[in-house]
Amino acid sequence: MTENSSAAPSWSSLGLPLGARRNAWIASGAVFLYYLLTMSRDLSFYDSPELALVAVNGGLGHPLGQPLHTMLGWLFSRLPGISGLVGLNLLSALAAALTVVPLVSIAEALCKPADGAPQPSDSSSHPCFCPEVILPAGVGLLALQPALWENATRIEVYSLATLLATWAVARAAPLFVPPLSLPPPSLPPASVPGEDRVHGARAQELTHGWSWFAVGVALGLSASVNAIIALSAALALAPAFAVTVHGRRVRLFDVLRGVGGGIVGLAPFLYIPLVAGRADVFVWGAPTGGDSLRRYLTNADFVHNQGIAAAQIADNLSRWVSWAGTHLLLPLVLVGLVAHFLLARRSGLGRGFAVLAFGLGLAMLIQNVIFWPSIPDYVGYLALSVGVLGAGACAGVVRLAGLGGRFRWLAAGLGVALLLGVAVAHPAIHQRKRHNDRLARTMAAGALKTAPTRAILIVKSDHWVFPLLYLHRAERLRPDVVILPVGLSGASWYWRLLHQHHADLRRFKLRGPGGRLGRIKRFLAANPRRPVLYEHYGYALALGRRPGCPGVWLVADDASCRFAFANSPDAMAPALERHSRDVAEGSAPSADVAAGISLERGDILWRFGRPADALRALRAGVPPAYRPALSPSNLKVTRAGVLRGPPLRWRRRVLIGHWSRNLFLAARLLYAAGHNKAARAHLRAAALGDLPEAKRSLK
Question: How far is the C-alpha of 137 from the C-alpha of 586, rounded, in Å?
């Protein structure tokens, strides 16, 4: 990797300084192929269905909006020869794979000689031993870390925002290097003696000036996808920028170019007022102006998730460290931080960049009231820093190998350990089966197709709300059905959207006592002839309504049970069994969703005197590896009778669900049926899942 014109920015290097261009593109292509083979072909959970809905229809998602992702998503959803959802998943995979190129550029900058001098021809004697192969290959392999794979293989904003922010970081790094360390520009021969020096200085000056503009544009575009990632990158670059300004190595005009580029990059936000008034598509918040636009742009809908006490922040930090350790992400972070501290002084980014980028991303997570380290959104916010730290870890291994002797063995061991962590971290590299995961569609389509005519579906959890809305609004499945998300029932704009879409709904007073529950009760009272389905048994009781039967997918009221669900078989258990066979734990958080909804399903089936169906439903949400075997005689559980009393209260909270809870309730059912041996086997399996209730029952 010589300091020559081949490392100068060009179109073939995405405008970045890059020496090992061919190998960087090979690594990027290999990563893209793996992402392509393992990515989702359909809907996923969390924000993915919402992002898909607004991209396909040209709507507007939750604050602060993701206008660039929505506009690009609109184009990718219309690629010829593939479905819209495959195109949207492809956008994430492509952006994440392209991020390998700027990460290799960053790794090369970290790996260059400290004095910036030309490298000797014998690569084996250089501190960067064989970087042309090792750096791109290492960065590509580390890109398969589950923390980076997670949002690269489903519809999300983080891959695109991270690509743009990482590109800005790689393009900014040379701007912070002292002039004597800069490589000479590639110039045509001078026609006049002495003109080459003047021409070179002028070309370098112009190149740097437009580089500031390009960095600003990239950060602005990144903010147009995810403002937090762009802000983290900008703040992490601030110390290096301050040192450059202090050393008078940047002109005021260049700073203004950077600011102007940032403003240009924010232009996609003009999409918000253009689409805000549309009534034919899903537009979150209807931010047409005034207070509604202010609330939207200030993220007022989600402010309640922030502002927790210092003790809770410390507890969240401890939980993240524990999670990162068990998921083998922590070693990569620590090695990357050490490598940046030792190598980054001459790279242009400075020693503080990696610490700041990682610290800011982590700080954004742990100050949330609702904190679960495994939430894909929280993993996505760390994608920028994890990628940069991975590039640093690769550079550190290469520099260590270049020292020769025993250091090469140490470097080899460290590299193998990091790659082994990538391969076996949950889900392991050979167990990722997101391409088979269609649980979100199966659930939503099943609930819609089996719903009575003109039914009202009252759902609360994210894994129900937006898959239902996507199929309902984007694919026009069951337009007669009303979908009422509990979380959006407090927003007047959503009620306007409902009445625009369902003109026959009777209006009622939005303002009144009882908060959201009171509002939903008034809505149901105003539309008494519509059958109602509920996500789970407990919420029906909270609304003062006793369910009439388990339904097929959702709990049904009396009217639905009399006319639509008389003697209907359960549909959830067979669908979850197929999902468990084809996906298992290879597509988080589907395994947790399967466990959570099958637990609720088993509970309601047992309460309505269907213990055999309840046992099947409970076990369907358990991955096969943890599911105890049952003999045919164990399946005869008619003596279990009817479950009475309130739903179980668990000692330990989980995000959505956990298979150990299913096994515990299945054990209770088996005990009630007199199958004590099988029940104890289920308790032991639940205890292996670290369930306190199971451990206590076994004592």
Answer: 25
Instruction: Give yes or no for residue 500 having a pLDDT over 60.
Output: yes
Q: Which is higher by pLDDT, 289 or 76?
A: 76
Q: What is the CA radius of gyration of the chain?
A: 28
What b/e string do you get for 198-208 counting C-beta neighbours within 10 Å, with b at 16 or more? ebeeeebeeeb
How large is the average pLDDT for residues 102-109? 95
- Which DSSP symbol is given to 348? S
Give dist(CA 584, CA 586) in Å, integer: 6
Cis peptide bond N-terminal to 427, omega within 30: yes
Residue 95: closest CA among 234, 270, 225, 215: 225
What does the alpha-carbon distance between residue 398 and residue 136 come to, in Å, rounded to a whole number? 11
Share above pLDDT 70 across residues of the chain, in percent, rounded to a whole number: 91
Average of per-residue pLDDT across 82-91: 97
Query: Which pLDDT does position 317 carry in this prediction?
Result: 93
What is the reported pLDDT for 275?
95
Residue carrying the six token digits 């391409």: 435
SS3 string of 250-269?
A: CCHHHHHHHHHHHHHHCHHH
Side chain identity at residue 171, one-letter code: R
- Which whole number is the average pLDDT over 203-232? 85
Residue 485, strand partner residues:
459
Give the mean pLDDT of the chain.
88
- Integer Cα distance of 61 and 302 in angstroms: 13
Q: Which uninterrupted H or E stretch holds 556? A: strand 555-556
Q: Which alpha helices (DSSP H) does 373-427 contain, by range?
A: 376-381, 383-402, 406-424
Q: Where do we find the tokens 């209006």?
A: 507
The Cα 390–Cα 413 span in angstroms is 16
The DSSP secondary structure of 53-106, one letter per residue, reads HHHHHT-B-STT--HHHHHHHHHHTT-TTS-HHHHHHHHHHHHHHHTHHHHHHH
Give which of 69, 58, 449, 512 is closest to 278, Cα–Cα: 58
Q: Are 219 and 38 in contact (CB under 8 A)?
A: no
pLDDT for 191 equals 39
How high is the pLDDT of residue 326? Answer: 92
> What is the rounded distance in angstroms from the CA atom of residue 166 to the CA atom of residue 219?
9
Give the per-residue pLDDT at 639: 87
Please report the pLDDT score of residue 208 as a whole number: 65
CA 58 to chain centre: 21
Place of tokens 């602005």: 220
Q: In the sheet that 532-534 helps form, which strands lie side by side, from edge to edge?
A: 482-485, 456-459, 532-534, 555-556
pLDDT of 648 > 70? The answer is yes
DSSP H or E run through 495: helix 492-501
- What does each C-alpha distance from 211 to 95, 353, 357 come to in angstroms? 22, 19, 21
* C-alpha–C-alpha distance, residues 71 and 407, integer Å: 50
Helix (H, G, I), strand (E, B) or coil at 27: helix
Q: How far apart are CA 337 and CA 353, in angstroms?
A: 10
